[in-house]
């Protein structure tokens, strides 16, 4: 059994990181505007206290004692390894560098906001250059196998290697670009009616009921509204989601809620015995999270949003309630017209508004840029032009402003270089997981078509969710699917779905 | 200047206690129900960390160095004194005793809830006995001048002495009991219309606007709804209030909001330079609060709720908006009928529903009981009968059940023996402060009658609010009014107000 000092420290770290999550949740959901300065200091203090505990003498002694001890259980040995990795990371990255990054990013975000508002990339450019240089410095300090981008992206997806990533996107490009082209040449289904008037209170009630139906437990959660939807957990017993409702567009609130509820199902279904262990904590990111990586997390949100929530079977079961909720608004719209509308695809400029088919093309562009910046083959100055060229190549359209182009995402200004691949990894893994689930439990298809979501959730819990961060994403994928990352299931799913939808 | 180690520790303690307040706010405003166990542990950890800092070697060294140093400013010397007092307190009260109290109270609260629900005082009786014994033990350890009750009550009101308290209630009894009798024999004004239908959203908007009008700053605050209204602050830049709205009774939400906004004005108007000093912290209660005591805090809530909010002048200015807000509901009610209705007094069983005139009689009964329990002149077993007798003596009515009698308040089950006096102290001090304000700034009367609340708020800020916990309640009262606690202003105010209202 792992020793007392180790457990004691981890338990305190766990509380501290969970409290930080609550402070962040509050800051996003209605904190008084003038409270932000103090809030920053509060979070800073708790982060410092958590890090002090990771790097404490007691912890280092405990880790040295426990490391490679053959009597440890898997959970114990993986907990020790997680702490050991964090200690090694912080030994290489001095606190001053972390502080420097935080200060740089807070200025960068201001410059980015100003640049985006006024369509001036030049305002953000010098900050992005400094951020890239800092990321390169961190990569050099941490060290990498193939490519400096691996250090950046491994903050979000442990073990992800650049050759794997390159091969993944090559395969996606080869089939997605032509598929999208074909679909966009076909006649578009009508979706006017999605922009009718949908009172927010009714949207909220309907979204609430859908989240419940797929298994989100409101006794251990709550649904609020924010400009940017998110999910955040303070242990498995307190997993909160937010969404945004547009009174004149149904999709945003509806699929946004399913997406965040999918994330929440991961956190709510981690095994209770992992509570207050290192296996529900990201000790390097100093972030309480039970999911093993951003990519696997995204696989769960995409699975419930798209595979389940945008399927014909789903709406066969719930379209009646939707019509009834918005009485008089969708009476003239058939189930199949509704299904086609919510799956309509078209080339678009903005990633967060992109549909299921084009989403990964937006990601591909960003990942190529991030790699190029990190290995020096692309300079920050070149980005606006590069962006336009790639949008033309992948989607056949081009932004007329940088605001709608290279300046649209907040990520880089926050120092998040390397997180974009996880969106596509999520899509791809969701397809692999579904394939494995249906192979092992063929009855799932029928259960889904009968709105029995608990059997899919049980399968996911047993195979993925319950393990928290016990396994790396690679191990988990191998355990569950017998393969590494492989986009063939995903591509086949998209090809079949859109062929049927568009009569290709 | 106070030394670096001292400031560093205080700053961390300040953040920790402010975060605890947020954790408590969240727990009361919509935390998922199953999150409560972890929430308790989170608060427990932060309390422990705060206490460790108060009792740390660095802190003790700093205090020893700074104590009685003639070069300190008033703020510095008072900060040092606050820490010194806390160290002395915790030296006398071992951690085990605090833990024992917390455990006992969590069981006691369950027993109290059960007892209240089923009208069985016997269920709560053994727990209350143990709580009283524990409070006596604490009193003996801490030591007192006149009476063990002083230790209990000084948790809420530093320096309050029993002889002062006894004399205060004797003076109140001598004039309040006959006044109440006379008022209750007179014909009652009609108040039926206060129980008409008042949609909650409109109540919320109206209460929001009243809180704004008296100076509550929503950029540094927010208004939520909870079963039990409260105010809580996380620094002066984040001061939150809650209220409850009853769709069929106007007073609860309206005056509840004014009351909590009054508390909030205290916290929002402490001098910015006291932020993150010991003078915005209760270091013994481990609670972030800028107000110097519960009594002075209550003086501010009562002042805005009753002196301002239940005055004729207030409604002369705002009754039009109220009528307009609830169009069609109060059209037949004149301003003077409305004014009489919101000030109607009658004997009632429940403290939290009591009116301005009878409120202190409810308190008097509780304070006598608390004193008797602490000095052993009254036993827990005797309480139900004692309660009935005193209700008959002071208010001329008697509860038919203990649920409506001795079991009505949660305080004792939570170990809060000694907090009740502060409600009456608040009423009395509010009158003394108003008297001092009007003497020094006679224009305030006219400003209030013209709905210019900022001049009263400025006066209060300068004389009371800005100082935070720099002065003890006694010092503050003496500085501002030139007297100690003295109920004559308060009694005169009540006698005049009700004589006029009831044509006595």
UniProtKB/TrEMBL annotation, chains A, B:
Highest taxon listed in the record's lineage: Bacteria
This entry's Gene Ontology molecular function terms read: metal ion binding; metallocarboxypeptidase activity
Q: Which CDD domains match?
A: M32_Taq
The answer on whether this UniProt entry bears the keyword Transferase reads: no
InterPro entries named in the record: Peptidase_M32_Taq (IPR001333)
**Any single biological process term in GO:** proteolysis
What cofactors are annotated for this protein? Zn(2+)
EC number(s): the record gives 3.4.17.19
Record note on cofactor: Binds 1 zinc ion per subunit.
Signal sequence, start to end:
none
Q: Which residues form a coiled coil?
A: none
**Which positions bind Zn(2+)?**
259, 263, 298
Q: Which residues form the active site?
A: 260
What biological function has been recorded for the protein in this entry?
Broad specificity carboxypetidase that releases amino acids sequentially from the C-terminus, including neutral, aromatic, polar and basic residues.
Q: Please give the PANTHER family that the UniProt record associates with this protein.
A: CARBOXYPEPTIDASE 1 (PTHR34217:SF1), METAL-DEPENDENT CARBOXYPEPTIDASE (PTHR34217)
UniProt-recorded name of the protein: Metal-dependent carboxypeptidase
């Amino acid at each position: 059994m792992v020793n007392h000092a180790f457990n004691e420290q981890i338990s305190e770290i766990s509380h501290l990181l969970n409290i930080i999550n609550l402070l962040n949740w509050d800051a996003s959901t209605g904190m008084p505007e003038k409270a932000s300065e103090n809030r920053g200091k509060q979070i800073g203090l708790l982060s410092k206290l958590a890090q002090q505990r990771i790097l404490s003498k007691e912890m280092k002694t405990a880790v040295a004692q426990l490391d490679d001890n053959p009597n440890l259980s898997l959970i114990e040995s993986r907990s020790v390894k997680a702490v050991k990795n964090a200690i090694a990371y912080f030994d290489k990255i001095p606190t001053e560098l972390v502080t420097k990054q935080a200060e740089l990013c807070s200025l960068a975000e201001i410059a980015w906001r100003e640049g985006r508002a006024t369509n001036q990339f030049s305002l953000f450019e010098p900050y992005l250059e400094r951020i890239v240089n800092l990321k390169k410095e961190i990569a050099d300090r941490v060290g990498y196998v193939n490519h400096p981008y691996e250090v950046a992206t491994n903050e979000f997806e442990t073990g992800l290697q650049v050759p794997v990533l390159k091969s993944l996107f090559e395969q996606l490009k080869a089939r997605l670009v032509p598929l999208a082209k074909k679909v966009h040449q076909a006649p578009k289904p009508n979706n006017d009616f999605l922009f009718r008037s949908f009172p927010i209170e009714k949207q909220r009630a309907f979204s609430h009921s859908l989240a419940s139906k797929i298994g989100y437990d409101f006794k251990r959660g709550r649904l609020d509204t924010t400009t940017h939807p998110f999910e955040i957990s303070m242990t498995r017993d307190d997993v909160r989601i937010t969404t945004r409702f547009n009174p004149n567009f149904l999709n945003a609130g509806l699929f946004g809620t399913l997406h965040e509820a999918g994330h929440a199902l991961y956190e709510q279904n981690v095994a209770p015995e992992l509570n207050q262990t290192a296996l529900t904590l990201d000790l390097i990111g100093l972030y309480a999270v039970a999911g093993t990586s951003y990519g696997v997390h995204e696989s769960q949100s995409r699975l419930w949003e798209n595979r389940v929530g945008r399927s014909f079977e789903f709406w066969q079961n719930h379209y009646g309630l939707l019509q009834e909720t918005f009485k008089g608004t969708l009476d003239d719209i058939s189930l199949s017209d509704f299904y086609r509308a919510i799956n309509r695809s078209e080339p678009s400029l903005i990633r967060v508004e992109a549909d299921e088919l084009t989403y990964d093309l937006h990601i591909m562009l960003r990942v190529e840029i991030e790699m190029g910046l990190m290995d020096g083959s692309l300079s920050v100055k070149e980005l606006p032009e590069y962006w336009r060229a790639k949008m033309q190549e992948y989607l056949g359209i081009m932004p007329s402003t940088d605001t709608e182009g290279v300046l649209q995402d907040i990520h880089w200004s926050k120092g998040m270089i390397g997180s974009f691949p996880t969106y596509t990894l999520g899509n791809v893994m969701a397809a692999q997981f579904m394939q494995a689930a249906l192979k092992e439990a063929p009855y799932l298809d029928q259960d889904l078509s009968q709105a029995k979501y608990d059997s899919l959730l049980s399968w996911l819990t047993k195979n993925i969710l319950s393990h928290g961060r016990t396994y790396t994403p690679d191990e988990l994928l191998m355990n569950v699917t017998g393969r590494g990352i492989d986009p063939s299931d995903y591509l086949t799913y998209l090809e079949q779905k859109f062929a049927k939808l568009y009569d290709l």
